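ingest -> validate -> predict -> emit
validate: passed (alphabet ok, no gaps, 124 aa)
predict: started
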Amino acid sequence: QVQLVESGGGLVQAGDSLRLSCAAAGGTFSMYSMGWFRQAPGKKREFVAGISRGVGSTGYVDSVKGRFTISRDNTKNTMYLQLNNLKPEDTAVYYCAARLGWAYTLDASAYNYWGQGTQVTVSS
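emit:
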């Protein structure tokens, strides 16, 4: 059983940056591939970024490529999402998720564990 706790969200202006963290406890963090998802009011939860276990290959949804960076530190059991040049359309609750397996996936149903979410609000 893995517990995930996100932090780092907040209210910022367009063009600002944030760094989200996802701290994991209760499992062997390095055995999990990880993902960040987000859900805006009235919209479906969507994949934002993923990072595999092992060599840590990464992937992003097109709308955040070049602005967001996902990373992980297995020594600290923590995953990060650096959000740069934020836009109002990035406003959402951001969730981290973990799955047993080598590779991340865009499919939310494939993840075994989820955090409670952290709110990111970007004003124009």
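The mean pLDDT is 96.
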